[in-house]
Each structure stands twice: as C-alpha cells, then as structure tokens.
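User: Could you check the structure of this?
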Amino acid sequence: MHLQESGEMYLETIFILTKNNRSVRAIDVGEYMGYSKPSVSRALGLLKQGGYVVGDENGFLSLTDVGRDVAMKMYERHTILSEFLVSVGVPHEVATEDACKIEHVISDESFEALKRLWEEKKA
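Assistant: Sure, the predicted structure tokens are below.
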C-alpha cells in the first residue's frame, strides 16, 4: 500500500502522541489533528489494513515496525526542515507550516543533502 500525505501525517501524529503519552486512542489523534471522528476512523482503518497501525481490545493504537519507520522518517524531516528554515530567518510558525508541506514531497536525495548541510552548520 502506497501512503499518501494524509496517511503519513496520521502516522507522524501517532508517533508524536506516543512519545508524550503511551496510551493513544483514535479520539486523541482526531483532537490533535482537528479531524472528525468519521475521518479519523476511516483513515485508521486504511492504515490498519495496510499494516501500519494496530489497535488493541481497549482501542489503544500502536504503530507496527513499518508504521514506526514511516512516522520516524516524517518526524525527522519535519524537525530538521523546521529548524533549518528558522535558522535562515523564517518565523517559527511559518517554518513549521512549510516544513509540514515540504516533508511529504521532498526526495530522499534532496532531504539527505539538506540534512548534511544542517548537521555541518550545527557542528
């Protein structure tokens, strides 16, 4: 199953929420993202079918290994792109919003080049 941007965003959200609180339910994801219950339910159903997310008998969500890999990739991209944009003078709020858009479309090659540049700059 090829993930679209929205699927990547759901996985990243579950990853972020799991970092802050081990118990994550669909309602938490919806509140964090500002989406309705039916939208979240549909998206999570697709992610479960794709093998990215599992839910237990109490409704708690967990990322599979594949889901965690995608989520961590998106989170790293978002974090580095946000920091990079802020470092070149972009206001924090704008940098965060732009990073959220860029993280889903930037190629692996371009991101790795920016990541290397960012790491050199920080060193």
